[in-house]
C-alpha cells in the first residue's frame, strides 16, 4: 500500500498513484504559472500561500474524480488549478475578516503586508481563476460562478448569524455547506465533467464532494481546539479568539441551554468574554478540550464523512473509488 499527498490518502494501485502524483505535480506547476505577474510584488504576494504548501485537498479530489472518465483529458489539470486558486483567494480574504496571524505555518498576508494588499491579492487570484476557467467552456464558467455565489452567501450568512428562532447548529451547517462544501463539490463535479464521465457519475462526485467538504471543515473545527497547530498550520484557538462560533462551541452552548450545568454555563460565560486576553483564551481552550462538546463535534465530522462514503455506492468498483473512500478515513483521522 502506498500513499498520496499530505492527507495520507491510501492508494492501492500503482497506476493510479502514478497518475495522481503526476497530476498534482502538474497542478503545482500550474499554480506557480498562474500566480506570476509582470509586477514582481504581485508575484510575491500571490505566491505567498502557494509556496507555503497546503493539503491540495481540492485538486486531489478533482484528479481522483477524473479517473471515472479520461484522466488525461486536457481540461482536468487546468480545472484543478482553477479550484485551488479560488480556494487560495478565499483564504486571503478570510484571514482579513478573522484577523488571523498565521496561515499554513507562515504569517498571513494581512500580517506580513497589510489588509489592503491581502484583499487585492485575493482579488487577483480570483481574476486569474476566471481567466483560466473561461477557456474550459460555458458549463465550467457557470459552475464556477454558482460556486462563487454560494461561497459569498455562506460568508454573509456567517456574518449575519442565525435568524431569530433558527437552530444555531443547523445555521452553521448551512454556512459551511456554502463556504467550504460548495467548492469541494465543484472539485468533484469538474473532475467528472472535464474527464467526460457520465452525467450520473458527475452528480455523484459532486454530492460526494459537498459531504466530504462539510466533514473536512468540521474536522478543522475540532483541530482548532484540539491540536497544537502543527496539523492545521494555524495558531490553536484562532477561531475561539476571534469569537467565531465553530461547532464545538455551538455544541457546548446547546448542552448548556438544555441541561443548565453550572460548569457549562460558566464556560459559556468565559467564551462570551474578551478572549484576546491570553490567560482567558488559554482557560477557554483548556475548558473546551476537556468538555464532551468537543467529542460531540468530532462525531458530527465522522457522521458527514460516513455520509460521503455512502454517496460513492453507485460508482463502479475501480481503484479511484477506493481512494475516494480513503479520503473519508483521512478526514476522520484528522479529528483524532
TrEMBL record:
Superkingdom of source: Bacteria
Keyword Cytoplasm listed: no
InterPro entries membership: Isoprenoid_synthase_dom_sf (IPR008949), Polyprenyl_synt (IPR000092), Polyprenyl_synt_CS (IPR033749)
Presence of the UniProt keyword Ribosomal protein in the record: no
One Pfam family recorded for the sequence: polyprenyl_synt
Cofactor(s) the protein requires to work: Mg(2+)
Assigned protein family: Belongs to the FPP/GGPP synthase family.
Full protein name: Polyprenyl synthetase family protein
Alphabetical keyword list: Magnesium, Metal-binding, Transferase
